[in-house]
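Friendly challenge for the regulars: who can give me the structure tokens for this chain first? No prize, just bragging rights.
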Amino acid sequence: MTRFGEAGVFAKTYIPSKIGDTFTDWKKYLDDSNRKILHQRLANPMEHFSQFPELEDLIKCGKVVNTWLAELNIPAYAFSVFQGKPIDSKNNQKQ
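First reply, four minutes later:
Bragging rights claimed.
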């Protein structure tokens, strides 16, 4: 059993810009396993924007969030010590 459907939902929710890659991989798998009818019925959202009107907004939001996260420049160790309290970025101490 494959999990391409779950990967598509995950991509839509967390990494909208990767939806196309997920569907491309899924369609390749279906093609390789001789499931041509399902392959033909599966629409890649990145190729059919008109059928997925919210996708463009999701991708824009994803870019904004990624830019924002990159600007925060949070060190990796901060995630392991975070337990519900904000971390003071100047001295890396919990407040």
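The first helix runs from residue 4 to 14. The chain has a mean pLDDT of 81. Your move, everyone else.
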